[in-house]
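User: I'm preparing a small set of examples for a lab meeting where we compare how different chains pack in three dimensions. I only have the primary sequence for this one, and I'd like the structure in token form so I can line it up with the others. Please keep the answer compact; I'll paste it straight into my notes.
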Amino acid sequence: MTGIERRRRYGKMVPVVLSGFDISAMAAAYIVSSLLMSASQAQLWLSGAVIAPALLAWIPAGWRLFARSRYRALKMERTATDAVHAAGCHALVFIALLYITATDGVAWDSLCYFYASALVLLPLSRTIARSLLKLFRRRGRNYSRVVIVGNNDTASRLLEQLNYDPGFGYKVLAVFDQSHPDGGIGDIYYGAIGELDRYVRENRIDEIFCTLPGDDQQGLRAAISAADANGAQYYYVPQMSRYVACGFALDTLGNMAVMPVCRPPLDNFTARTAKRALDIAVATVGAILFPLIFVPVAIAIKTSSKGPVFYRQTRTGYMGKPFSCLKFRTMRYNPADESPVEKNDPRVTAVGKFLRHSSLDELPQIFNVLVGNMSVVGPRPHMVSHTEYYREIIDRYMLRHSVKPGITGWAQVNGYRGTTDHLWKMERRVEHDVWYIENWSFMLDLKIIVRTAINMLAGDENAY
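Assistant: Understood. Below is the structure token output for the 464-residue chain.
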């Protein structure tokens, strides 16, 4: 068996393996839930009258998990979110089947036990399965052989993305363009579009990514023809993608193909509701525990220096609207001094240094969250003067105000916090903020909250 044949065999096995993990997770949830029930409920739960509808309900739920065609490059948190959606789909179908078959006696608490277990085990199994699959691909198995048509800036960025993580399973073999001579650079072959069809056929190419401009009709036809003639999957990468804030969708207008720019995830009412529910839940728990932290912190602040316990500063919030951001005071009290804090800043008290290092100084912002002018997770709010300055020199800076600012954010858990003494630091921070807005998911927020908690326990060297 050739290497290509083995690779194609492994590719066919992937859905089977992932389905096996999914079914195992649901079976484990089924068994775990039966252990939590009363003896009579467990006996009914393990009967064929209940197991059969549970298995049938997995057909649409399992399909939901495989709805995304580009599963190779999906983020873990998006995979986990899809698993949660699949559990919800299973619940709707399962309950409907129980009603249709007139299966009486199944208690609601039994269903709650089952789906509570499933909501933990299904995303966990999916995450483990994809981690193992990425490890498998890093060893040279189950990769997709790719060529890029077009040798331009878009192609360069695409090549960087495809090679970003070997675990995605992409292997770029060649780049073809109208103006590029035959030859090779490194492991990648560069050639003319005229030889594309032969190369795709001889090298059993799986996917063709075309980055040619729309007016290059000859090149576009050659790329599509090579894909059609050799059974390769064809993808068109629009050159305008670097100038828009989020992804594309494909739609039709009559017999014309159109690509509307997608709205960010949080433009969806359901997504905003889920995020707000998480904010209220986390902030409520924080507010309940707040007195336990407030008393010793307040005593320490008042003992270390004169001034109030809390510090209020006007920051730029949602849609550019200013709001009063609440923090524990960490510096010597001087209302007239609003300059940014620098490393080893003499204005920071000993207590303030600890609060900043542990990020406890941000804790009062849970009340900003409860009021509604902040979220638990989101781009950190900047001083109004910083907003006015950076909006003029950093591309897409104001896009970060299209969502509520957060106590913590994607930029912060990736190390971009503290002083911005160099422009590139703020640029990286904005890039991470924009990425968060474009790729938001409920599981991503949970991931950021967990990483923030870990950083608080370990301390952050960039917090000062």
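A couple of notes for your slides: Confidence is low (pLDDT under 50) at residues 1-7. The longest helix spans residues 269-304.

User: Perfect, thanks.
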